[in-house]
Amino acid sequence: MIRLESLTKSYGKVVALDGVDLAVRAGEMVTLVGPSGSGKSTILRLIAGLDRPDRGRVVVDGQDVAQVPPHRRAVAMVFQDYALYPHLTVRGNLLFGLRVRRVRRAEAEERACAAADRLGIAELLDRYPDETSGGQRQRIALARALLREPTVYLLDEPLASLDAPLRFATRADLLTLHRELGTTTIHVTHDQAEAMTLGERVVVLNRGRVRQIGPPQQVYDEPEDTFVAGFLGSPPMNLVPGGGVLGGGTDLTLGVRPEDLRLDPDGPVTATVEAVEALGSEAVLLTRCDDGTRLTVRTGPRPGVWPGDQVRLRADLGRIHRFDADTGRRR
Ligand SMILES: Nc1ncnc2c1ncn2[C@@H]1O[C@H](COP(=O)(O)OP(=O)(O)OP(=O)(O)O)[C@@H](O)[C@H]1O
């Protein structure tokens, strides 16, 4: 449905994308993640036609869209900065696209109200964008995108400025919407929970290159290299070059996720607790082993240990990841 072929784009000396290949199926929801500057927004901009690739192609439904101007591409993009029309009310913003498409007034009103209801912004319809909060503006932009009924949604951190409860609720809304509408969706996020839940596949990018693509749980369970291992998951996977306290050979880097380490009075690894982060539903211990290796351990909410305590740790041996020490590739 959407195919990116060897997509390459530089801005001056900065290589934003370096040969990205990606195929997104019709109706699929895909998440782009990666550090700041890894090229996520650039991918969306090239699909939307807001920028041109230096090399490579964007193919939509079998057609190379290089010659198709942005307004003729059936994509609706929601940006981090919303891009609402400031001189129109919320209602006006929602109706704008429908008017352009000559939808009858009564029907347009009905659809705009339904979209506003759905995203919980019905009471804001008569306000201007600058009379609403950042989170509300984000919902208005989503409602407007919803009304375009595009073949593809491109969402650039659509939930970024929502507070935690609203973010949780809107995440669920987005999933329901996607189930109902089945519109192909590519979205960018910095949020680990969204990366894990809000897409059938996750694409991990670094420095303009795809590092791994797969169902989120699979990428989480079997990261192909140390970069992906360290990027997906919060707190990140513990990586021990040479194996060290986790055992193993010097030609390996061993990895273990914080939840796969546990406090065990008979555990083989001795460590000192340096900090305890009580997060309510769980706690994260930052520990330092006798050889200086730092290990992060995820425990239940009240681990009963304090900074300065000596503890013993045990890793779930079945869940130790092995990477080549030189290349970082999974072995
Ligand atoms: N218009 C531009 N002019 C110059 N450099 C740009 C431009 N747009 C993007 N870049 C550069 O291209 C690289 C990729 O940018 P992009 O916005 O795609 O990253 P991103 O992964 O979306 O980052 P973030 O998570 O911070 O939004 C960055 O190094 C960025 O500075």
UniProtKB/TrEMBL annotation:
SUPFAM superfamilies assigned: MOP-like, P-loop containing nucleoside triphosphate hydrolases
A GO MF term: ATP hydrolysis activity
One Gene Ontology cellular component annotation held by this UniProt entry: ATP-binding cassette (ABC) transporter complex, substrate-binding subunit-containing
Keywords, alphabetical: ATP-binding, Cell membrane, Membrane, Nucleotide-binding, Translocase, Transport
PROSITE patterns according to UniProt: ABC_TRANSPORTER_2 (PS50893)
Residue ranges constituting the ABC transporter domain according to the UniProt record: 2-232
Keyword Cell membrane belongs to the record: yes
Membrane-spanning segments: none
Superkingdom to which the source organism belongs: Bacteria
InterPro entries assigned: AAA+_ATPase (IPR003593), ABC_transporter-like_ATP-bd (IPR003439), ABC_transpr_MalK/UgpC-like (IPR047641), Mo/tungstate-bd_C_term_dom (IPR008995), NA-bd_OB-fold (IPR012340), P-loop_NTPase (IPR027417), Transp-assoc_OB_typ2 (IPR013611)
Pfam families reported in the protein's UniProt record: ABC_tran, TOBE_2
Cross-referenced Gene3D superfamilies: 2.40.50.100, Nucleic acid-binding proteins, P-loop containing nucleotide triphosphate hydrolases
Protein name: Carbohydrate ABC transporter ATP-binding protein, CUT1 family
